[in-house]
Amino acid sequence: MPDAAPLSPATIVVSAGRPARTQAGPVNPPIVLSSTYVSQGAVPDGELFYARADTETWHPFEETLGALEGSAHPAVLLGSGMAAIAAALSLLPPGGRVVVPRHAYNVTVAHAHDLAARTGAQVTVVDVADTEAVVAAVRGDGPDGDGSPAAMLWVESPTNPMLEVADVPALVEAAHAVGALVAVDNTFATPLGQQPLALGADVVVHSVTKYLAGHSDVVLGAALSDDPALHAALRRYRTLHGAIAGPTEAWLALRGVRTLALRVERSQANAAELARRLAEHPGVAQVRHPSLPDDPGHARAAAQMRGFGSILGVRPHGGVDAADALVAAVRLWVPATSLGGVESSLERRRRFPLETASVPEDLLRLSVGVEDVEDLWRDLDQALRAATGVTG
Ligand SMILES: *Cc1c(COP(=O)(O)O)cnc(C)c1O
Question: Is 185 a catalytic residue?
Answer without folding.
Answer: yes
